[in-house]
Amino acid sequence: MMQIKFATSNLDISRCFPVMVQLRSHLTEAEFVNRVQRQQQAGYFLVYVEKNNSIKAVAGCRLMETLIDGQLLYIDDLITDTSERSQGYGSALIDWLIEYAKSQGCVSLQLDSGVQRAAAHRFYFRKGLTISSFRFKRSLQ
């Protein structure tokens, strides 16, 4: 049976790493755990899909408020294990996040996605997300 849970302990966070590193390949497990712990202090949270004691998909999110949109759920990170794609785990996770956002009084769910992630974009469109803006970035290092 598939379950969706919050990763609250260091063990939970570490268990999410093998899936998350598929999206954030620059991180080591120790750095991942440290960053999640630091960001949790500012409202970041990890949610994961588990089936048969195996993590299938992970999302890193935060509740926030902006002048343009009001209260929203922002998804920083969303990944399904590459060996588990097209089995409904990512869909179940984003559906859960939508319901969670509604329960928290959010008026929208938002995320950014790299321009190279065409398969992810098709998934987001199927889940009812639309492109609402461009994000511009300038490296400072």
From TrEMBL:
Any matching Pfam family: Acetyltransf_1
Keywords noted in UniProt: Transferase
Q: Which Gene3D superfamilies match?
A: 3.40.630.30
* Annotated ranges, domain N-acetyltransferase: 2-141
- Asked whether the UniProt record includes rRNA-binding among its keywords, one would answer no
Entry superkingdom: Bacteria
Sample GO molecular function, one term: acyltransferase activity, transferring groups other than amino-acyl groups
Q: Which InterPro entries match?
A: Acyl_CoA_acyltransferase, GNAT_dom
- Stated name of the protein: GCN5-related N-acetyltransferase
Tell me the organism: Chroococcidiopsis thermalis (strain PCC 7203)
